[in-house]
Amino acid sequence: MSTDLSQILTVARDILRTAPGKALHLDSIAEEAVATNKNMGLSASAFSTKLQAALAANLKLKTQKPTFTRVAGKKAGSAKKGWYRLKQQKTSAAIAKVAPPLVTPDFIGRAGEFAAMGELLFWGYNVSMMAVDNGVDLVVEKHNVHFDIQVKTATESSAGRHLFTVKRPVFLAKDRSSMFYVLVVRKKNTTEFLVIPSNYLRTLLEAGAIGGGPVLSMCVTIDSKGHQYTLNSGTNINIFVGNFGVIR
Q: Which letter, b or e, does each residue of 140-178 get, where b requires 16 or more Cβ atoms within 10 Å of its Cβ?
């Protein structure tokens, strides 16, 4: 199966991999992309339209094997309208993923910052790393507007739980509309990002949803299927998963 896929086709492939029969209608793929915040900032209808064009192009590939195919209809040689599935292909033995070694927090923290920088670049932000961390790790610019980013990285401490802390004085000193927190969630070989505006965290702080004296404690919990992200007392934060588009 080809790995040279556009972003929207990669999303479709990942959704179809867990779908019954590995087949879904275009609109169902779009709805799942929206539900898991992988819709690239598009509405469900816009995502479905763009995906349809991308799938049509994939099916016409000649220099490499298509990743997708149409779902057969009831009549011989026909196809169900709008339905697609992953094309079954012979594969060699699966390559085992090698887990990275345990490293110190300094390595983890810096790795998270560089991972966030790379993702921000993919989203079209120009990124600079601050020489001194005084509550701001990165300064980003897009369309001549600048934003401050604080990156916090955590590995899994127990089943689905990632713990993040921010010093209260630092948080209060940097709390403004141009400030954003990128929580880097590291699970074995995968990395995900939660992009949360400072003013949203302030609302949770005022409501008592996060706290802890001089240190603000944030525990991000992910359900076993990776569909539900909650913060501390159960605040749903799915909208912030991978959503660098909130930085504006």
A: beeeeeebbbbbbbbbeeeebebebebeeebbeebeeee
Bridge-based pairing state of the strands 235-236 and 179-187? unpaired
Q: Angle 7-17/26-35 helices, nearest 10 degrees?
A: 100
CA distance 63 to 87: 16
Nearest CA to 229 out of 181, 171, 164, 162 is that of 162
What CATH number matches the domain at 105-246, 3.40.50.920, 3.40.1280.10, 3.40.1350.10, 3.30.1120.10? 3.40.1350.10
Say which CATH topology domain 7-86 has: Arc Repressor Mutant, subunit A (1.10.10)
Tens digits of per-residue pLDDT, 175-194? 999 999 999 999 888 899 99
Domain chopping of the chain, boundaries:
7-86, 105-246
pTM, two decimals, is 0.63
Q: What is the pLDDT of residues 47-66, one digit of tens each?
A: 999 999 999 998 888 777 88
